[in-house]
# Entry
Amino acid sequence: MDFLKIFSSPKPVIAMIHVQALPGAPKSGTTPEQIIEQALKEAKIYKKCGVHSIMIENMHDRPYRKNSAGPEIVSMMSVIGREVKQATGLPCGIQILAGANKEALAAAYCAGLDFIRAEGFVFGHLADEGYIDSCAADLLRYRKSIGAGGISILTDIKKKHSSHAISSDVDIAETAKAAEFFLSDGLILTGRATGEKADVEEIKMVKTKSNIPVLAGSGINRGNLAEYFPFLDGFIVGSHFKKAGNWENEPDDIRIKKFMSYYKILCEGKL
# Structure
């Protein structure tokens, strides 16, 4: 799927909805109806504040299962995704932790969403959930088999919360080239953990070595946006859009509006 066909902006701002803990998760304590209601509340805030896209993620389901999600998780994420998409009309994506990429693709297809964020696309790595193997071959064949070719697969490389010692002799540019060769629709670079920014020099390196979109997947905020703006094709923003900059909190419309106003200034080249 062509990246530019999904988004109205050439450098889209993708806002995160970290849905409340889903049924069966250790921290779950709300009904499906309440979870959906909260997600819709957040989606409408983002829509009102002018973001270009929304992505949902089950980040409150910690600790995460590795490469698996139960039917209750997939069902809820699909329902939430469809409700958010219909309520906002924005391009919407989904990630299901940890590494449940086939499940995310199935949920996205059934919900009419536009993209997924996939972990472990190329090169295995050690995450806090355990060893995550590469999945490109199986995932793309699965997309083909269910007729979900219209859904983009945006892929993390050298992913946060992970050790990459076993691939330390493969730099991030070579990793990006491998992901592109294996038909990734876009690359996501992050810092070492949630809320930590990616290395701008690594971003520059990846941009010179790849021909597909490159997005920041963590650490973008109003204070550093100008530094990253020339080198990126999109911005996934989670923590900075939340109250007190904490991903666990609800979105803060003042923070979002200030960010989007500054984003527009950068787009117009007025700085």
